[in-house]
Design brief:
Blueprint: H1 4-20, E1 24-28, E2 31-34, E3 40-47, E4 53-57, H2 58-66, E5 70-77, E6 82-83, E7 87-90, E8 110-114, H3 115-120
Parallel strand pairs: 3-5
Antiparallel strand pairs: 1-2, 2-3, 4-8, 5-6, 5-7
């Protein structure tokens, strides 16, 4: 279950990404939207002033890899709820990830990807 803060700020960032990139909203455990051609897109957002990283779940990542999917990254600031920039990246082009236990959350291991790793690569 998402934290209240993640829902409060992450959902507007997700809607921003869907509108900006002309995506089709989807409700699936491993992706949030699709391109018009049906290719899956998992939208990730984070507060750069608070956490500064995106959480990626292994099960969702594996599904994106299997379906040649994409990530859409939307770092934001809470002040004024402003998305700073958006990046799109194929799941297969993500930097190497180190998975760790989530304590049962989403029945999957997760990793944290720093905003700067997405921005510079």
């Amino acid at each position: 279950m998402l934290s209240k803060k993640a829902n409060k700020y992450g959902t507007p960032a997700e809607h921003h990404m869907i509108e900006e990139r002309d995506l089709v909203a989807a409700r699936c455990y491993w992706h949030d939207a699709t391109f018009r051609n049906g290719m899956p897109v998992e939208i990730k957002s984070c507060d750069v002033a608070s956490t500064g990283y995106f959480q990626i779940y292994e099960r969702a990542h594996d599904q994106l890899l299997e379906h040649d999917g994409w990530y859409a990254f939307a770092p934001y600031t809470r002040s004024g709820m402003r998305v700073l920039k958006v990046w799109m990246r194929r799941a297969s082009k993500m930097p190497p990830m180190q998975w760790s236990s989530t304590g049962g959350h989403r029945d999957s291991r997760k990793t944290k990807v720093d905003v700067s790793r997405v921005m510079r690569s």
